[in-house]
Design brief:
This protein is α+β, with helices and mostly antiparallel strands. 19% of the residues lie in helices and 28% in strands. It has twelve helices and 39 strands.
Length: 677
Amino acid sequence: MSLRWTAVTPAEIRDACLDFAWLTRQRRHPVPTGPLHEPIFIRLRGEPETARAALLTAVSDPADPLVMEPHELAVLTARCADPATDAGLPDEYALYRGLGTPDPDAAGFYQVLDTGFPVALTEAPAMAAAPAPVAAPAASGQPIVALIDDGIAFLNARFRKEGATRFHAVWLQALEQAGSPGTARSGEVLGRAQIDALLDGLMDEASVYAEINSRLIRREAHRSTEHSASHGTHMLDLAAGADPFDAGDPVRDWPLLAVQLPPQAIADTSGILMESYMVMAMRWILRRAAEIDPTAPVLVNLSMGIAAGPKDGTRFAEYQIAREARLWEEVKEQPVRVIWSFGNGFEDRLTARLGFAAGAETEQQIDWIVQPGDQTESYLELRPGPGQTLDGLEIALVPPGGPASGFVPMRPGTCRDLLEGAAPVARISHVARRRLGGGVIQPAHLVVALAPTDCADPEPLAPAGRWQVICRHSGAAALELHLQIQRDDSLTGYRPRARQSYFDSPEGYDWHPDRQDHSALAPDCAIRHDGTLNALASASGRQIVTAGAARHDPVRGTLWPAPYSAAGADWCLPMPTVAALVDRGPGLTGLAGTGTTSGSSRAFNGTSAAAARITRALGLSADRMCRNRLVPGSTQLSDFSADLGFWSVPHDQSARLGVWVVSPWAPGHAPEEQPVY
């Protein structure tokens, strides 16, 4: 293998990981035949009514490169027909544009805020229109629980009430297909009437899921609802599942909404395929919730996560989801809470920190272990501390066996490739800062992207092994440099294609007294446990709640952070809002909940399960949450009902558990034994 480094070249970079993934995947598996479009999210410019009309005209023109998902198009059409519709909400829309279409200049009627991974709009079969809104049979004010996840078994008995579904609607997203003129359709929506029709005389839930999956999901993709356990089903059960015939359970009256993300987006744990679908899902949920009850609180459970990012609330998906929730509550006066899992990466060795003094040229090195057999890309992000810049920083990369890149100054908006022949197998990108509006800026940062180390097809591969990352700083100001490896693993049940890379250091093998092995990080180790939180869960708005996972520790005789539960840090979100009890000891991990089919049971742990438990706790606190909307200075902690169970968290564990461990059951009414401390 003959490798060589290129010179630094200018490049238009909005998302360095997405750009590199598109390059490598095109040479490995070209997309199916069909027009290529990229998801974009835009903000209209100029006079609102004129800009809306211009956008509607554009998507109605078959020759124009802009098309919209039918749900987004319905929102635009309604606002064009009646300017009072959604008055007060910003003119922002998710849509698609032909790949290669340039951003409009300053005179254009819209600004592009974000782009997603390109899709091929294959021809779609004819399909019935989306179900018309139908009022939910629920008492006024009942909390509306919504889930954005993978594998949602919407026929399960835990989501019924006396034989009828509690779902108002389910959006089963899938890779986009060309719909009616001007539209790109992602999957299909099932309304309550359609789900009840499927339940009428139902004998075999699995066959219904198989039939739906066969028309929505490509053959090679994972079909979670055809497996015995599915993540979304279990999370929704923990959040809002109930015995359909237990009239004494208030949860049985809660209306449900759900969005099942495309399996391809879930399988890619780096998140580059997932974020555009998540944003569209959030916008869809809020409008469906208003159809159910425009005054009821909306609880959106998001147990999805990635490892690397700015972790300051400026990654686009978290920024936009928090913005949608805040503005909806402000304008529509409907309480909204988004409950995120705080992350499971505490022990994954994906985060490191290097400190450089001001005024002196110094070098520091850390090793990046990239595993063989990895059929997916690997990414490393290097970001400055809060209020700092990368001025004076240069990095050199040494692949296993060479050649070394050497130190070459790179300005924002440039990149440098490691080539095998003419094909890049590694890239260093300096991504310029991005303005998201309202003074929100995502800082400039560096990204190192590597090609897969293994593939069944003949293609240029990155070498597996120990990559040396050498950082040299000579700036006039001190620099605290945060290095983060992006998540890149294979989920349980999915094809085992990805293998997680990680940092390595001689100081990373101290004695661990609890485990009785050499797995602890020394105090002076560059690899860190702090700052390991979910990079999609760092927004700190009033509507955002984050959940850590607690474990009953039989040795200490108290509640303790679960071994995987991530930690905040002083340079990002310092701690989760609260935590929930998930594990009852080393041998009793996870929370029991329903499997995919009715009557089955499985156990899942992780901060996903904690987030679901916190969602249930907030649902039981719905009255208090509604009152708090009118209380100045109320916080997320103010939302929890005093009737719930609480355990105060010691200060030295708050970075992983927040302020309280919260039980979603009133004391004395838990369905399982609760520890009392």
